[in-house]
Automatic annotation (TrEMBL):
Organism: Rosenbergiella australiborealis
A Pfam family matched in the record: Asp_Glu_race
UniProt record similarity statement: Belongs to the HyuE racemase family.
This protein's name: Asp/Glu racemase
UniProt superkingdom: Bacteria
Signal peptide: none
Amino acid sequence: MPRHRIQLINPNTSQAMTDTMAITARHIAGDRLDIDAVCPHQGVPSIEGHFDEAVATLGILQQIRAGEARGVQGHIIACFGDPGLLAARELAKGPVIGIAEAAMHVATLVATRFSIVTTLPRTVIIARHLLHRYGFYEQCAAIHAIDLPVLSLEDGSGTAQQKVRDYCLKAKQEDNVGAIILGCGGMADLAAELSETLEIPVIDGVSAAVTLLESLLNLGITTSKWGDLDFPRNKGISGPFAECLA
């Protein structure tokens, strides 16, 4: 089996969070994949709403184009809102996986119902939108917010991580679910510990996305270019957007 090269795109500008997710991704990939972990140099330091997602999308598309120029064969959008996912699928030659969609698919393979533990309460609404879009709304029992910002996961205090543990335990005890999804890429390094402690599958989207992307590459399958996900038409776009089509 050929060794594939993929890239993990952190859509925010936090190098520390990029590094955290890269460790998880490379552990799951082992020696089967080469993984470039990248983030944009400009944009938002964290993604916690629709505005942030809109700003981050341009950086994602620039990284898609830059990665394919380096020979990358597939891409992961490592933010639980899956920002710019369909636009990225239009632009990319290789498959593109969002970590929220990946985590939801994997959860439904191992449990009939799951809960999500995320960061801020406003992101609960975004997660609900994704559940509807992906067709998993009925399988999700509850969405819990630890009520701390994304970057609290990188502040070194451990407070956010403990709240994630507490809410995962709450979900197991109260939601009557068989699996829990961690609703932020910055939580990726907690999944193995929590799965062992709680004795139910705790799924992080980074690991799920790496595994699904590897499977698509091994199968030789990429995004369909028949229909709405065909490559974007070059209409003489100006400004920084033009870089994406160059």
